[in-house]
Structures are given as C-alpha cells and as structure tokens.
Amino acid sequence: MTESKESREIVGELRRQGWTVERTERGHYKAYPPDPAQKMVTFAGGLSGDHRTVKNAVAQLRRSGFQWPPPKQNGVTYPFRPPPEGRLDDGTVVREGDTILANGTVIKEHPISVKLELESEPPTPDELYAELRAARDDHRLHAELLVEADAALLRAAERTREAKEELQKCAERLRDAKAAFDAAFEAE
Length: 188
Description:
Layout: H1 5-16, E1 20-23, E2 29-32, E3 41-43, H2 51-63, E4 72-73, E5 76-77, E6 86-87, E7 93-94, E8 99-100, E9 106-107, H3 125-187
C-alpha cells in the first residue's frame, strides 16, 4: 500500500503534537495520543481510497484530541510550504518545495541526483526510476526526522520552562521557611 501525501502530513502532525505513531505489518497506523486517558486510534496507511477514508481517520483522531488542521503559531501553520519565491521576515528566500519548521528553520528541498555505475549496458528506465524513488524516499525520511526533532526540541523547551517555574517556587518556599526559622530563633 503506497503512502499518500495526506497520510504523511497527518502522521507528521500527529508526531509534532506529541502522539506516538507506529506502522503495522499490513501498512496501517496505530496512533497513541499524548493523553493516556484517550484511546488509541488505528487508521489505514495509504488513505488513498475515496475522500471519506481521510475524513473518517481525521474524525477518529480528533475524538482522541488531535488538532486538524494543525494549530497556527504566530498566524502560520507549521510545518507549511510557502508560496514560490517568497521571502521570510528575516530576508530568507523560500522557494516552492522548501519546508519551514516551527522554530523558523528553513529546510531547502534540493533536486535529487541519481548516480549509477554503468556496467556493460545502460540502465533501463525502470532501474533509473527505482533509484530515483529510493532517493526521494530517503529525502522524505530525513525531512520527517527533522520535523520530529523540531517537535522534540519544542517539547524539551516547554519542560525546561516548567522545571524553571518549579525551581522558583521551591526557592520561594525555602526563603519562607528560612525566614520562619530565623523569626523563631530570634523570639527565643
């Protein structure tokens, strides 16, 4: 079963929102929400049937807490593909096919070149196509890994912020306890 563009986008967004996504032997996905109180959702990996297949999968995922279309940050849905030949606020040129991560990093989509060692006869078009497809699959995998890493960085930053807040609360409690101790010692 071939994976459709819609399923890649949905799986990428699931991972960005903190879901755990596994692929079964038969090509289906098992999506585990970040909230353990919600139930796991299974959906077809290809999602290439009729349009209802995608809508039904998204509806099931939404019932377990998935936000689709992706939530916007600063008015922009991440990751997104900007219009061709656009410019970001910092002057970065963005071309069609580039991807922008939530932290603002631009992933340039480079043309794929295929290098085959020629033996006695030139490769057939099918062999060239297979090589091209393998190279594209590798490129997609790396782009998905970058999106996952970006999501992990955002989650780590959030946990760091929460830990700093907890540390400040602990420091305040320690100051209060010390002040109470000093006041009790001075009273004696």
